[in-house]
């Protein structure tokens, strides 16, 4: 079966090609608007409220997977789909109908089955892209293609704009800005949406197996906290006060633990007023979880299980295949390395938590590394990224961070100057982080004071003093472990795609 999509035009300058395409689209829209009026005038309607559907395209394909050519089933169904291929001949017309999951079935409209008037109307009003209802017998064509021999048809929704050429790749900009077209055209776009749903279901299932409770916390906050990031600022007319879109749910989830909800998690949106690139989006989905009487080692074990279970749900294996065909192994036990030890091994330096800032600044300068508002911790982390991060290929937990970059984390139980924090790197980017949580309200107050000093010196990512959170800690929070992971980045690790491909409708200019 062929379709009526025009062949590629000869190469012309980009501006001229865009102008020509726009003119052709405008003409097609004008013609389709006229067909819409024609359908309404005839009483058939262009957008009926309901249709006598008895089966779906996937259902019919599953029920009749291997019909011989020219076979008849005697079973009549009513189903609907979007027309993605269309061929009109004399007495027999063909349309390929596509369901939302991408599965297709052929509709055969013959003069003998529908009559002269209906066939003429078909040729007059049906276009590529229309949603179409058909009813008739399930058969196999002479070429063995599963088909419906149409006895009745109706327009289910008249399209006013043409579909893109199904034989040409959509540009990345079109895929991102008009995701609905991407979902119609590309199998991979549909796969990612379904993969994301499987990932979220898997995460919830794994948490349920560990007796976690899913909760929801505020997205509008009077004090932004829980991460080092620049917030979006808004104003509440009702309360006449400045509010922030949350950068993290951490401080509210910890309040829940104080209240006796000993194992809690949340999957929801975070917002950070920062740059956008292949691994960052201003709006993103985040998972955070907290466990009373746990620590960062237990949270690392849990995080590994969460990711491995999600990979199994999507790929059926801990070995995932990325979009470019690369296989990546997520199974087994993942490496755990010390930040300071791995930095020294890769660089030949002898950096410790007590190394002065001036010494680190001097070494950073030789590498042309610039750090705004430099502290010991920021410089150590920048040097680590320069020397170590680029060579991380396997999933790796990087353990034990500088204290001054981790104001919500408990001091290490045996190493002075560091805290019990890890970052998980997969595919060369940070996927998750985990802590042994700081629960001493006196030390937490001191850490907030230090953050306030940084903010006063112009560090827009520094945390603000949160008196209500400190009040909660003063009522006693049990020793706890916590973790956070970006859902979009988890999809990146499983599929090999960039962040704009894993978010259904990413924010773009």
Report on this structure:
- The chain is of the alpha+beta class.
- It has two domains: 22-157, OB fold (Dihydrolipoamide Acetyltransferase, E2P) (Beta Barrel); 185-334 and 394-502, BirA Bifunctional Protein, domain 2 (2-Layer Sandwich).
- 36% of the residues lie in helices and 25% in strands.
- The protein is built from 16 helices and 18 strands.
- The protein has helices at residues 14-42, 57-63, 111-114, 116-125, 172-177, 179-185, 187-209, 250-258, 296-315, 339-347, 357-366, 376-387, 441-456, 467-473, 487-495, 499-502; strands spanning 72-88, 92-98, 104-110, 131-140, 146-157, 213-214, 220-221, 232-236, 241-245, 263-271, 283-292, 319-321, 327-329, 335-338, 396-402, 418-426, 429-436, 480-486.
- The strands form four sheets. The protein has an eight-stranded mixed beta sheet, with helices on both faces. The chain has a five-stranded mixed beta barrel with strand order 1-2-3-5-4.
- Strand 12 (319-321) and strand 13 form a beta hairpin.
- The two termini are 40 Å apart.
- The model is unreliable at 1-12 (pLDDT under 50).
């Amino acid at each position: 079966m062929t379709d009526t999509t025009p062949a590629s035009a000869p190469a012309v300058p980009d501006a001229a090609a865009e102008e020509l395409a726009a003119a052709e689209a405008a003409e097609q829209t004008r013609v389709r608007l006229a067909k819409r009026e024609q359908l309404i005038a005839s009483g058939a309607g262009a957008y009926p409220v309901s249709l006598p559907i008895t089966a779906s395209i996937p259902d019919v394909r599953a029920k009749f997977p291997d019909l011989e050519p020219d076979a008849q089933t005697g079973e009549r169904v009513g189903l609907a789909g979007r027309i993605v291929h269309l061929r009109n001949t004399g007495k027999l017309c063909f349309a390929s109908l596509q369901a939302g999951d991408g599965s297709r079935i052929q509709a055969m409209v013959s003069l003998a089955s529908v009559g002269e008037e209906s066939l003429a109307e078909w040729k007059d009003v049906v276009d590529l892209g229309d949603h179409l209802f058909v009813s008739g017998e399930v058969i196999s064509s002479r070429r063995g293609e599963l088909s419906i021999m149409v006895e009745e048809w109706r327009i289910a929704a008249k399209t006013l704009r043409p579909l893109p050429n199904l034989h040409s790749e959509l540009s990345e900009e079109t895929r991102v800005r008009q995701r609905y077209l991407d979902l119609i055209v590309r199998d991979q776009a549909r796969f990612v949406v379904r993969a994301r749903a499987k990932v979220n279901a898997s995460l919830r299932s794994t948490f349920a197996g560990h007796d976690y409770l899913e909760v929801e916390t505020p997205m509008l906050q009077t004090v932004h906290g829980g991460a080092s990031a620049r917030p979006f600022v808004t104003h509440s007319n009702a309360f006449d006060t400045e509010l922030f879109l949350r950068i993290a749910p951490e401080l509210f989830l910890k309040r829940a633990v104080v209240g006796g909800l000993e194992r809690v998690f949340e999957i929801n949106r975070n917002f950070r007023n920062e740059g956008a690139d292949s691994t960052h989006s201003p709006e993103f989905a985040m998972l955070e979880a907290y466990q009373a009487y746990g620590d960062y080692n237990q949270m690392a074990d849990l995080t590994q299980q969460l990711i491995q279970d999600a990979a199994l749900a999507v790929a059926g294996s801990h070995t995932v295949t990325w979009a470019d065909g690369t296989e990546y192994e997520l199974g087994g036990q993942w490496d755990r390395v010390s930040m300071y030890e791995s930095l020294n091994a890769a660089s030949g330096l002898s950096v410790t938590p007590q190394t002065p800032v001036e010494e680190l600044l001097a070494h950073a300068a030789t590498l042309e590394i610039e750090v705004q508002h430099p502290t010991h911790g920021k410089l150590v982390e920048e040097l680590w990224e320069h020397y170590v991060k680029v060579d991380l290929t396997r999933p790796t937990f990087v353990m034990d961070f500088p204290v001054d970059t981790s104001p919500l984390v408990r001091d290490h139980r045996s190493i002075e100057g560091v805290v019990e924090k890890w970052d998980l790197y997969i595919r060369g980017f940070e996927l998750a982080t985990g802590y042994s949580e700081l629960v001493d309200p006196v030390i937490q107050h001191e850490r907030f004071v230090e953050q306030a000093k940084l903010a006063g010196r112009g560090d827009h990512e520094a945390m603000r003093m949160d008196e209500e959170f400190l009040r909660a800690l003063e009522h006693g929070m049990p020793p706890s472990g916590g973790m956070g992971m970006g859902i979009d980045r988890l999809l990146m690790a499983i599929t090999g795609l960039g962040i704009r491909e894993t978010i259904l409708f990413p924010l773009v200019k």
